[in-house]
Amino acid sequence: MTEIPSSLPPLSERPGALGWMRRNLFSTWGNSLLTLLSAAFLVWAIGGLLVWIFSAAEWRVVLVNMRLVMVGQYPVALVWRIWVAMYFLAFLIGNTVGLRMEKTTRKGLAVGLLFSPLVFALFSFSLEARLAIAGLSLIALAGWWLGSRWPQAFRRPVLIGWIIYFPVFMLLVRGVSGEGSPMEVVESNLWGGLLLTFMLTVVGIVFSFPLGVFLALGRRSQLPVVRWFSVGYIELVRGVPLITILFMAQLMLPLFLPTGLTIDRVIRAMVGITLFSAAYLAENVRGGLQAIPKGQFEAAHALGLSGFQSMLYIILPQALRLVIPILVGQFIALFKDTSLVAIVGLFDLLGIAKTVLAQPEFLGLQREVYAFISLIYWVLSYAMSYFSQRLEVALGVGER
Amino acid sequence: MSAKNSPSSATPFWRDERVLQTFGQVVFVLLVGLFFYSIARNMVTGLARQGMALGFDFIKGMAGFDIGEMLIEYSRSSTYGRALLVGLLNTLIVSVLGIIFSTILGIILGVARLSTNYLVNKIAAFYLEVMRNLALLVFLIFWYLGVFLKLPRVKDAIVWPGNILLTNRGVGIPWGIPTETFGTYRLILLGGLVLASAVAVFLHYRGLRTGRPPLTTLWFFVTWIGAAVIGWIALPSAPLALDLPYVKGLNLAGGRILSPEFMALFSGLTLYTAAFIGEVVRAGIQSVSKGQVEASRALGLSGFQTLRLVVFPQALRVIVPPLTSQYLNLAKNSSLAVAIGYPDFFYVSSTVINQSGRAVEMISLVMLVYLSISLLTSLFMNWYNQKIRLVER
Questions:
Q1: Among B17, B223, B353, B358, which is least packed by CB within 10 angstroms?
Q2: Is the pLDDT of residue B262 over 60?
Q3: The domain containing residue A243 runs over which residues?
Q4: In-domain check, residue A39
């Protein structure tokens, strides 16, 4: 007879796959029924989708028109300028990730950065395009490596890089006017596709942000006239759909200007988007301002700062830090909303789809084209929100 | 600070805060006034050069265009005003239906997101994540061109249970045709409503007297529906005759035919907004702390009572404000109908602008109308929010 050990090891409940399924899928009769129903739904939905993607859909329409979807009618000989702008952006993103991210997430993101553009290089584009796309990955990776290797040395340059990115980007895309300039001007009616969407988004963010901050401060102002004006503007704009603002910008803005002065359609759309987005940003910033305790104002005053100084150096930095997540959400919404310019006839990412579908050899391929465009919007929105969540963790938003 | 304590004569007027503030506001008003004056002048001179004057007289003019869908009588010889009214009704019907259905779907999604069933939970999570990152306009166009217009032709219509026909010319659903007893039945419904309200008021006051919370809403509907059912049976012939849709030549006939434009806009808006409402509902339910449930169980409340009297009222307080803004978004987003050709208010307005050239007046009118819709919705939701808010001592 074997000796029974005096103390048995505790029974650790370690259910296998079956135990897990029992707990999470088949705990009760109702649950089992739900599980079976959802499993059937999943099989039906995913099966149908896979069949469509891999056998029914004709993706050639997208591959052939990739340049149109990306940059619209932008002159082929000058596309290198957009590539330069993209490389600059890739470097900045890579460098920021290398500098700012936590050790654990850095690796995962770096791999993502390395491979995500490379996926596109697998498609059957021209060799040059594939090399250019692969370059994007390499430069992003180089930025990451430099940033994580010498964080101190790159802290300032990368910040300056982000600040000058907008003017540099505009300069590269538009060119320099004047006789014999090294970069000839590309008129805005030639901008199109993702490039135009990107332009509208960036311009919208850059200009609506300060306007939104001013409106938020105006709404909190002690001067009743300024306050009423801000409240009136914010509530008016938030009460109407964006498309009415865009129509107003397209049809009424030319009337508001003095005779002889005209602005082109792209800039009109930019004005509309900026005016619209500023009202929403103002409300978000106001939320941040309201969250700052009164003691901060009083302490700033006690230190001898003027009202303006205490707002600029004490209150605003704290308030803006508080609302970074909401602001990023607003910017993502702005990015998605730029698709509305297609209704007023611009050839942005959505508007260009009509051009693609008008080609006689690709008639009736609406599903493929719009699904692809939807995917671009989705991936970019998702990437922005993911990136911002990581950045919040890295910056310690809400912890300080 | 010291300036305020000393006699006012010691402060020179250019450093007196009140003077400065007044001065600043006057300057602000002047600048804003100047800005608006100059753009208004530019506009009037610009319009005068085109030989146009401002005014709303054109609205009585003949529209001269057709509208695909209307709830009220309209023809191309009707006035612009009538056309706009048709559009407004279309906007309202899509918004109201969208709000109702997206709320139902949103609640289902929110609850599914919290389900302990792994598969249900993950499907809901996936749906929310996918929908919330889509660009609505692109989704609507895909939904219209890629799904509803790609349905089979009328002669190969897909038939769903309940005799629902899906075709690329629209979706046919069964509908009721009023018979000769319908007028009487309407009166019965109205009487039932009065009776149900009386029951609700009685229950409410009895609840106040006895201190037991009554199931007011439940009994209200039980009474009303009971009256409706009894009335239906009691009448000599049924007040509504069932009318099934069927294929007639190259078109659908019978029942009620919903156009692809309407279906795409309505279902697209519903699916999109439901994802946001689902997120709101999830956050609301999660905001009720577990201790509340445990405490109410400890007090002897049943599971249903806990849900109805403890969890739900508290969750609702968190849910209603963001829900309001989702409803407003849906109403405003219905203007995207213009991209898929559903004749809503904005679509009709843009047609009117093209026909009459009255951009300034029409855009002002459109903004005013949407502003009123937003204002009315938020007034109603604020009233509801007041009603359910936490009454603090």
A1: B17
A2: yes
A3: 194-348
A4: no
Amino acid identity of residue A337, one-letter, is D
- Look up the ipTM and state it: 0.87
Domain total in chain A:
1
CATH number of domain containing A276: 1.10.3720.10
Please list every residue in chain A whose beta carbon sits closer than 8 Å to the beta carbon of residue B133. 332, 377-378, 381-382, 385
- The runs of H, that is alpha helices, within B255-358 are 260-286, 290-298, 303-305, 312-333, 337-340, 345-356
Mean pLDDT across the stretch B84-103? 95
List chain B domain ranges.
2-49, 80-174+244-388
B93/B382: higher pLDDT: B93
Four-CA torsion A244, A249, A251, A254, nearest 10 degrees? 160
Please tell me the distance in Å from A206's CA to the nearest CA on chain B: 21
Q: Give dist(CA A156, CA A94) in Å, integer.
A: 15
Note whether B44 contacts A: Cβ–Cβ < 8 A: no
What is the separation of C-alpha B209 from the centre of its chain, rounded to a whole number of angstroms?
A: 37
- The radius of gyration of chain A from alpha carbons, rounded to an integer in Å, stands at 27
Cβ of B119 within 8 Å of Cβ of A223? The answer is no
Percent of residues, chain A, with pLDDT higher than 90: 38
Domain for residue A107, yes or no?
no
Which chain A positions have a beta carbon within 8 Å of B138's beta carbon?
A: 339, 350, 370, 373-374, 377
What is the CATH class of B80-174+244-388? Answer: mainly alpha
Q: Does the structure show a pLDDT above 80 at B106?
A: yes
User: Is residue A299 in some structural domain?
Assistant: yes
Which helix (DSSP H) or strand (DSSP E) does residue A306 occupy?
A: none
For residue A133, which amino acid is it?
I
The two tokens of residue A124 are: 């059957």
Question: Phi-psi category of B211—alpha, beta or left, where left has phi over 0 and alpha has psi -120 to 50?
Answer: left
Mutate to test the interface with A, among B41, B129, B141 (most CBs of A within 10 A): B141
pLDDT at A55 over 70: yes
**Residue B2 in this model has a pLDDT that exceeds 60:** no
Picking from A29, A52, A228, A247 by the largest number of B CB atoms within 10 A of its own CB, the best residue to mutate is: A247
- Virtual torsion, Cα A313, A315, A317, A319, nearest 10 deg: -170
